Amino acid sequence: MVKRGGTMGPGMWSLFILFALSLWSNSQAFTKNPILSRIRRAPEASGETKKCSYTFLVPEQKITGPICAARGYSTDKDRVTRLDVASVRDLLSKQRREMETLKLVVDVDGNLVNEMKLLRKESRNMNSRVTQLYMQLLHEIIRKRDNSLELAQLETRILNATTESLRLASRYRELEARYSALAAVVNNQSVLIGALEERCMQAYSRREEHPPMGPPLVQVVPENIPVSVPRLTNEIQTEHGRGFARERGSRSGPSPTGETLEVQKPPERNFSAEGPFRDCLEAQEAGHSTSGMYLIKPDEAERPIQAWCEQNMDNGGWTVIQSRRDGSVNFFRNWDSYKSGFGNIDGEYWLGLEGIYRLGRQGDYKLQVELEDWMGKKVYAQYNSFHLEPESEGYRLRLGIYQGNAGDSLTSHNGKQFTTLDRDKDAFSGNCAHFHKGGWWYNACGQANLNGVWYTGGVYRSKFQDGIFWADYGGGFYSMKAVRMMIRPID
Ligand SMILES: [Ca+2]
Q1: For bias kind Basic and acidic residues, which ranges apply (predicted)?
Q2: Largest Cα span, the chain
Q3: pLDDT per residue as tens digits for the range 169-201
Q4: What distance in angstroms lies between residue 292's CA and the mean position of ligand 1's atoms?
Q5: 422 C-alpha to ligand 1 centroid (Å)
């Protein structure tokens, strides 16, 4: 079916024939195509029956190669093309869908990539944060190590301080012991000085009239001297507005006084308006459990008296008959004063010999002496019975058996009458009240002098033993800071 070579004329014609045949077949196809058939059928509608004639003008073409003429082939090719269009369209739409799917996938991938990027970024951030935390941790560890070092240093310092304080405490104890020894020496020297003075006076008296000799001094009890008193002094606390103070180092004592009880107007505080009671135990039994001032009227007494009731110590019920604590009251007084009593009920005072006598007559009483040294240590001496004889007997002291931790410095005064500056009832050739500057149940003269001169600081220097001393606790040259004498019915 292929014609080769030849001239231009026959070639043209053969092409024309082929094309005409092709058109004919197409006209067959037109009848199937609704659009084409409509075009062709238009003249039929007008009622004319015409035959179609086609004229084709084909430009002359120079054929150089072989010409293939295949009628069937051209027709087939056209048909495949249409199907192909449909299939290509399908394919295209398929591919479009796939493209869209792929686009979606790509989008998803893009998102994933973004997410990956974000995750990488976060990871980088986390890494940097972890690094930062690690650095902080290292820093903390180093700091803690430093702290522990500081702690160790502090511990060492504390240990050193403790060692130092222990060393100081031990040194302090040594000093205390030395002070104690020195205080003992001073006491002994005072005794020696007293003895020498006495000898001098004796020598002097051979030539002239001499002043009265002092009583024998109480020997020192060195082991009982309260220690750690940092000064050696003989200052006397001044009495309020009265002024019996003497100059430092002076050996003249306070002037005697004959004044009686100074309490006229009891303070409102701690004062019970009820009563009077027979004694402080009765006041306590009447429901007055507070320590303070109460009106006491012993049996047979002419008038009530004021007294301080100690209701807290040792079950209470104690009637205080004597109190020393600040040197505010002069105890260098005459007989009448000691008989009726003097001082301030809420401070330093003496209840009065008559009152004490009357109290002792109404029952069996015991006596407690309470002493406080300048270190604040308190000791006591208790006697299981106590009373005084009447004034006609010089208010003689009657004591029972001692017990306590202060030492017994009062039994040697048992059975002695009371002596004041103006009434000498003691066993000494002179007047003990003159030398001890107080009133007491002096013997010749005494182991205790609780109505003596109130010195500050404890150990004192004086020509005579005139401080508030309790020989068995501190010796004769140690003056107590505070003293109380109180009585209570025996249970
Ligand atoms: Ca005498």
Answers
A1: 237-250
A2: 206
A3: 999 999 888 887 887 777 777 778 777 877 887
A4: 38
A5: 11
